[in-house]
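Quick one, tokens below:
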């Protein structure tokens, strides 16, 4: 009976040792899974950030292009306005003749054009 108890005790101890090893392996696997999940989350966040950065760069480039376009339009409009003013001054001088009676009216027209 003593031998039987000793054998069963040895078997139990072997099983406990195996269970402890398996528990250690399981914990290791759980840690690997947790690390892999964390890495996946990190990779997903990184990908999302990179996509947002690309979108921001695209928006920034579009805004810069619009700004250049607006500056070019402003330049064209400024030149056209200057040309109109110059033409009006020339027309005003020609139509005024020696009397100069239309000065106030031409100046008023120029002011209205500037407001537009």
């Amino acid at each position: 009976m003593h031998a039987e108890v000793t054998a069963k005790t040895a078997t139990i101890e072997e099983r406990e040792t195996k269970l402890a090893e398996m528990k250690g392996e399981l914990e290791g696997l759980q840690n690997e899974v947790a690390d892999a999940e964390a890495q996946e989350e990190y990779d997903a966040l990184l990908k999302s950030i990179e996509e947002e950065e690309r979108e921001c760069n695209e928006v920034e480039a579009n805004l810069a292009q619009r700004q250049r376009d607006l500056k070019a339009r402003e330049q064209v409009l400024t030149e056209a306005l200057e040309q109109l003013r110059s033409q009006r001054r020339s027309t005003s001088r020609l139509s005024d003749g020696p009397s100069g009676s239309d000065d106030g009216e031409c100046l008023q027209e120029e002011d209205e054009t500037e407001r537009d």
